């Protein structure tokens, strides 16, 4: 078994190394056709004279090419701003499509070969490493998680976290740097939607791949728990079908790109002008999508959360939760269980929810009135701030990049506005609770150690208190790792829940675990 896993690890690392190396392959030569085919006519007339000096030059890396092209466009925009010609400022990011059109060499000529040498080897290696775990006993065994450099904020975790952070920064702000990775998935994008791949297709592909492969790991690890197996299959299904395949197929059918499981305010641009206009202009299906999205917000969330708690979405449907539960599972023990962390969490996540509501109100005001200013505040500035700080940095760079540093639910716990909305319903009007039997608790601490949401579950178990915290996503891992069957996930009369008010708790009552 160990031999097979070593081979698998070797193949995975080889595929990953090849994937990294592909960033340095090929050359980039800017041509007239690359500009004409990828720039709007009005922008071509402005940009073409500025990039005259780099047309025909050969760049050995996407980094060098992207920087040269981006610098010329940014210089042009600075001149427009200095002259107060704000209507001529170019906001479109042409660096990626121009870089793709300018790419030459082996990545373009042998895309399939490099795809299988990178993704193919990595996928095969991952399966060879994971599948032999079927011979091990299921469940969590506390096998040196606080001593391994991969799961205890050690050097492996720091390297992985740094890579994820850099990847998200490149994806959101400098996609031309990873243009070769995007080219690798071009054939798949063409097959699904009929369009060339974008950085978001690459992201969706990698996201889905991670959820599926690590989801299989979850199925093997928790095969003793039907609840965990169904939950893992659910997030794998919703990510693969609703988040990845269906939207791409809709594009092929000339319909709007739409993720039927995404809900405002997590889907913060749902009420943006471009999205509303797209849906309204696409006839019956577009109007159905609009109505479906609104129905999820005002009907599905309160009703399903009343009957099942927020777990119906956060642990069974949501893509963010799906990635956290699969790719992030090795890091769930790193969540801070202190009362101080809980207080920060409550202010932050509800603060983001308020921010999302205010931003959306400004957006709708502008949409219906045509006025961008709400008093002295510009609605476009507010939405841009939300998109940058919350939509990109918090949910992406921090939310996933900090898995190996702060646990797998950093975004869900501290920043997700939908989690805050669902949590309010769960806390005050829901049938969901985790019941405890304090008489059987042996204070092993497994439940608290592995709670990804930073809840000191043992504190509740020792006192026989029902767990009805708004942050609980109902993943059920605490119940799965309990050796005495103390914890049970239940849906019952909300008036029968046994609770203790958070304001009555003190730091001394909630000891740290681990």
From TrEMBL:
Keywords attached to this entry: 4Fe-4S, Electron transport, Iron, Iron-sulfur, Membrane, Metal-binding, Transmembrane, Transmembrane helix, Transport
Pfam family membership, one: Fer4_5
Keyword Metal-binding tagged: yes
Transmembrane segments: 7-30, 113-131, 152-174, 200-220, 232-251, 285-308, 347-368, 388-405
KW Protein biosynthesis (keyword) present: no
Domain 4Fe-4S ferredoxin-type: 432-460, 463-492
Gene Ontology terms, MF aspect: 4 iron, 4 sulfur cluster binding; metal ion binding
Annotated Gene Ontology cellular component terms: plasma membrane
Protein name in UniProt: 4Fe-4S binding protein
């Amino acid at each position: 078994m160990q031999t097979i896993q070593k081979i698998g690890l070797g193949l995975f690392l080889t595929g990953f190394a090849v994937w990294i190396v592909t960033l340095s392959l090929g050359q980039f030569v800017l041509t007239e056709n690359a500009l004409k085919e990828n720039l709007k006519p009005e922008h071509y007339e402005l940009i073409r004279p500025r990039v005259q000096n780099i047309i025909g030059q050969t760049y050995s890396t996407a980094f060098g090419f992207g920087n040269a092209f981006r610098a010329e466009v940014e210089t042009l925009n600075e001149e427009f701003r200095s002259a107060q010609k704000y209507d001529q400022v170019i906001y479109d990011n042409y660096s990626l499509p121009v870089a793709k059109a300018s790419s030459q060499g082996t990545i373009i000529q042998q895309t399939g070969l490099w795809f299988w040498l990178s993704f193919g080897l990595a996928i095969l290696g991952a399966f060879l490493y994971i599948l032999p775990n079927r011979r091990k006993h299921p469940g969590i065994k506390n096998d040196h998680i606080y001593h391994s450099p991969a799961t205890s904020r050690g050097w492996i975790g720091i390297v992985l976290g740094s890579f994820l952070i850099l990847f998200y920064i490149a994806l959101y702000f400098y996609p031309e740097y990873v243009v070769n990775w995007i080219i690798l998935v071009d054939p798949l994008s063409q097959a699904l939607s009929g369009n060339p791949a974008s950085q978001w297709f690459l992201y969706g592909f990698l996201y889905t791949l991670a959820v599926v492969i690590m989801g299989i790991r979850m199925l093997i690890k928790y095969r003793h728990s039907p609840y965990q197996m169904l939950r893992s299959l659910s997030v794998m299904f919703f990510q693969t079908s609703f988040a990845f395949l269906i939207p791409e197929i809709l594009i092929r059918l000339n319909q709007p790109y739409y993720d039927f499981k995404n809900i405002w305010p997590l889907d913060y641009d749902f009420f943006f002008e471009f999205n509303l206009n797209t849906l309204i202009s696409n006839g019956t299906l577009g109007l159905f999508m609009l109505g479906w999205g609104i129905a999820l917000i005002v009907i599905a969330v309160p009703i399903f959360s009343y009957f099942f708690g927020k777990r119906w979405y956060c642990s069974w449907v949501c893509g963010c939760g799906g990635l956290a539960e699969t790719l992030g599972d090795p890091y769930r023990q790193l969540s801070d269980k202190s009362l101080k962390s809980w207080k920060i969490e409550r202010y932050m996540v509800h603060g983001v929810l308020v921010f999302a509501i205010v931003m959306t109100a400004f957006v709708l005001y502008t949409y219906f009135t045509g006025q961008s200013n709400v008093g002295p505040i510009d609605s476009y500035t507010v939405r841009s701030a939300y998109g940058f700080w919350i939509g990109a940095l918090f949910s992406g760079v921090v939310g996933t990049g900090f898995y190996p540093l702060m646990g797998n639910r950093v975004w869900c716990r501290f920043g997700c506005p939908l989690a805050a909305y669902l949590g309010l319903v769960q806390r005050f009007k829901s049938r969901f609770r985790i019941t405890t039997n304090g008489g059987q608790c042996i204070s092993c601490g497994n439940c608290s150690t592995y709670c990804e949401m930073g809840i000191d579950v043992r504190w509740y178990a020792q006192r026989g208190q029902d767990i009805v915290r708004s942050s609980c996503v109902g993943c059920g891992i605490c119940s799965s790792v309990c050796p005495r069957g103390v914890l049970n996930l239940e849906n019952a009369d909300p008036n029968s829940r046994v609770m203790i008010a958070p304001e009555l708790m003190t730091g001394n009552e909630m000891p740290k675990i681990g």
